[in-house]
């Protein structure tokens, strides 16, 4: 059970990191298009 909780926590953290990085990338992409 401990392994399952650790695996789920790790997958959740990695998923949040991807969402956070994607949001920053999207914001930079939209901001760069507005300046052109």
Could you please describe the fold and organization of this structure?
The chain has 36 residues and is mostly helical. The protein has one helix at 2-35. The longest helix is centred in the middle third of the chain and has 34 residues, at 2-35. The radius of gyration is 16 Å and the shape is rod-shaped.
Q: Which key features would you list for this structure?
A:
36 residues; mainly alpha; 94% helix
Beta-strand residue fraction: under 5%
Distance between the termini: 53 Å
Average pLDDT confidence is: 91
Number of helices: 1
Q: Which class of secondary structure composition applies to the elements?
A: mainly alpha
Helix percentage range: over 70%
Biggest sheet statistics: none
Give the low-confidence spans. none
Shape: rod-shaped
DSSP strand tally: 0
What Rg is obtained from the alpha carbons, in whole angstroms? Answer: 16 Å
What pattern of helices and strands is seen along the backbone? H
Structure summarized in a few sentences:
With 36 residues, the chain is mostly helical.
Give the SSE layout.
Layout: H1 2-35
């Amino acid at each position: 059970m401990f392994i399952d909780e650790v695996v789920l926590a790790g997958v959740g953290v990695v998923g949040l990191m991807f969402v956070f990085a994607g949001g920053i990338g999207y914001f930079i992409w939209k901001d760069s298009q507005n300046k052109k």
